[in-house]
Design brief:
2 domains; 183 residues; alpha/beta; single chain
Length: 183
C-alpha cells in the first residue's frame, strides 16, 4: 500500500466512525497510477477536482496531513483547473473504500491535462508532466485533441490580443509534441 492509499484508508476509517462520506474526482499522477500505469516516481499528493464543502471532512483531511507529516497530501486547489468538456461522463469509479468514492478522469482527459500542464510548467524546468505524458503514450490524434482543448477551452478568458498569441504558441507547441509522439 503506497503512502497516499494509506492516508485514504485512514480517512475512510475516520469517515466511517463519523458516518460521513466523500466523493473525489482524481487527476494527476495518482490518477495515472490508479489507471494501472506506473509513473516510476513517488507522487506527493492527491489532486482532487470535486469541491469539498464539509468543514468536518476538510478539517479531518488537514489533521491526517499533520499526523503523517505531509500537510499537502490532499490538493483542494485542483478544483480551479480548466477541465475538458464532458469529463464527468467519462469518469471511472475505482474505489474499494466504503466511505470514499474515488472516480478517475479518463486517460484522454489526463492526456489533455498533462499536455496543458507541461505547456504551463516547462519553462520553469518542471519535466514531470512530460514524463507522465510519455507513460500515458498518447497518439498523434490524442495530442491533437489535447491541443484542441487548449485552444478552445483554456483560452476562453483571454482578450483577443492575448488569445491570438496564445493560439500561435500552442500551435508551435503542438508541432514540438508531435515530433516526440510519433504514433
Amino acid at each position: 500500500m503506497n503512502h497516499l492509499d494509506q492516508k485514504l484508508k485512514f480517512l475512510n476509517d475516520k469517515l466511517e466512525q463519523l458516518n460521513r462520506t466523500i466523493e473525489i474526482h482524481l487527476i494527476g499522477a495518482h490518477a495515472i497510477e490508479l489507471h494501472g500505469i506506473s509513473i516510476g516516481r513517488r507522487t506527493e499528493d492527491i489532486d482532487n477536482i470535486k469541491i469539498v464543502t464539509d468543514d468536518i471532512i476538510i478539517n479531518l483531511i488537514h489533521e491526517i496531513g499533520e499526523k503523517f507529516g505531509e500537510p499537502e497530501w490532499f490538493d483542494f486547489a485542483a478544483d480551479s483547473i480548466t477541465l475538458p468538456s464532458g469529463y464527468k461522463s467519462r469518469l471511472k469509479e475505482v474505489s474499494g473504500l466504503k466511505n470514499i468514492t474515488i472516480k478517475l478522469v479518463s486517460i484522454q482527459d489526463l492526456i489533455c491535462l498533462k499536455v496543458n500542464a507541461y505547456y504551463l510548467r516547462r519553462e520553469q524546468g518542471i519535466e514531470r508532466d512530460l514524463e507522465d505524458l510519455i507513460k500515458l503514450a498518447p497518439t498523434k490524434e490524442d495530442i491533437s485533441k489535447a491541443i484542441g482543448f487548449m485552444k478552445t477551452e483554456c483560452a476562453i478568458d483571454l482578450t483577443s490580443k492575448f488569445q491570438d498569441n496564445y493560439i500561435k504558441e500552442v500551435s508551435d507547441y503542438e508541432k514540438e509534441l508531435q515530433k516526440l509522439f510519433k504514433k
